[in-house]
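WARN no homologs supplied; continuing
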Amino acid sequence: MTRILLLGCALLTGQLTGSPQLDARLMADVLASKLGDCPTRAIVAKFKSGWSKTTWGPPTDVDYDVLPTDSLVWPYRIVIQYTLPTRVTKTYKKKDEAEGDSTADLVIRLKYKDMYELGDKGLRISSLLAQEMGGGWHERLTAPDACWDSFQA
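OK structure emitted
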């Protein structure tokens, strides 16, 4: 956390490397490495058919790019893409049975794309997207308690 705060302060004051494009790449590297360090997130919930556990993460295949924009205020766009493995267990009659299950009946690999804008005013989220089955992208729902959705530059 301290590394990220220091990098953010240095970027805002423009005193990190003297090269705005290199500073943007360093910020992208920090954001991408934070995603790679995210723990799994598990939730046990009751459905009509019984109790089931869903586990998300940790993010894999994290990759990023820094793109120049035409904006004077936000001259760089950071695009981070990653895969979020999602596992769902079979259903159980009791909650504790579902909580104890570590094997998945269903594994889905969600593709996410997070876009940020970087400029003199700092860093902000531009859009958070999920890939559709047909290959297109749409705005995705977020989970504030999930590491990959907690925006901390």
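The first helix runs from residue 2 to 13.
OK
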